[in-house]
Amino acid sequence: MNFLTRLLITALVAFGLSYLLPGVHMDSFIAALILALVLALLNTLVKPILVILTFPITIITLGLFLLVINAVIILFAARLVEGFKVDGFWWALLFSILLSVASSLLQGSDERKS
């Protein structure tokens, strides 16, 4: 059940951010649900590989390169999910930062209620 709650929160936040950010476009809430599922899969399967491959540059940048990895994952998800479009790298970077912060805040408040 926890996975489904996280998926729904991520979809809600992503859908809301598509209204706030002019460089992020989402056709429907169904596209947001699919995006949340694709992001969960990419973060589970692809992100660890990218983190390992870019470990030296991540150390040199004191971890800031992880933001670039998150933006690349968002851009990759935009290619995979029909109905989700990001206008460029900087919009993907901003979207990924805001998505992470808002999802963490909402999931944290959800866990405190339990």
From TrEMBL:
Coiled coil: none
Superkingdom: Bacteria
Membrane-spanning residues: 28-46, 53-77, 89-106
InterPro entries on file: Phage_holin_4_2
Record keywords, A-Z: Membrane, Transmembrane, Transmembrane helix
Protein name per the record: Phage holin family protein
Species, as recorded: Flavihumibacter fluminis
